[in-house]
Amino acid sequence: MNTGTKALAMALLVAGCSSTNPEERAVMGYYSPPWQSGLKAIRPYPYQNSICQEIGYNMVSRDFYDDSKLLVGCPKTEQGAIDDRVAEGGEVVGYIHHWTMIHMPRF
């Protein structure tokens, strides 16, 4: 076996050892897209390139919905984004799978 083949075989072996445990993946920064959690994402919040999403009303989000507040979801692993929303006046109201639900005041 030549050196290139050995390196490729080693890389494939190492890649095959990665975890598929969802809880371990969450610790490493994995989160599911909103739709996989049953959430209806409307648009990124507060900016176009933001990781958090404005969440629309549906059967999954209805328990968190409040017409007087904006419902925003941020991945649980994105603590900096969650802290930013709270600093802007948001209130964490619960969790849906990998997403933290936050009520934001409407201005």
Please explain how this structure is put together.
- This protein has helices spanning 3-15, 22-27, 79-87, and strands at 40-45, 52-56, 69-75, 91-96, 99-105.
- The chain has 107 residues and is an alpha+beta fold.
- The protein has a 5-stranded antiparallel sheet, covered by helices on one side.
- A hairpin with a 2-residue loop joins β4 (91-96) and β5.
- The longest helix is centred in the first third of the chain and has 13 residues, at 3-15.
- The chain is globular.
Give a short summary of the structure:
The chain has helices at about 5-15, 20-25, 80-85, and strands at about 40-45, 50-55, 70-75, 90-95, 100-105.
Major beta sheet, strand line-up: 1-2-3-5-4
Shape: globular
Give, in order, the helices and strands.
HHEEEHEE
Strand content: 25-35%
Largest sheet: 5 strands, antiparallel
**Strand segment tally:** 5
Bin the helical content.
25-40%
Runs in which pLDDT lies below 50 for 5 or more consecutive residues are 4-28
Q: Determine the N-to-C terminus distance.
A: 66 Å
Structure class: alpha+beta
Tally of DSSP helical segments: 3
Determine Rg (CA atoms, Å). Answer: 19 Å
Average pLDDT across residues? Answer: 81
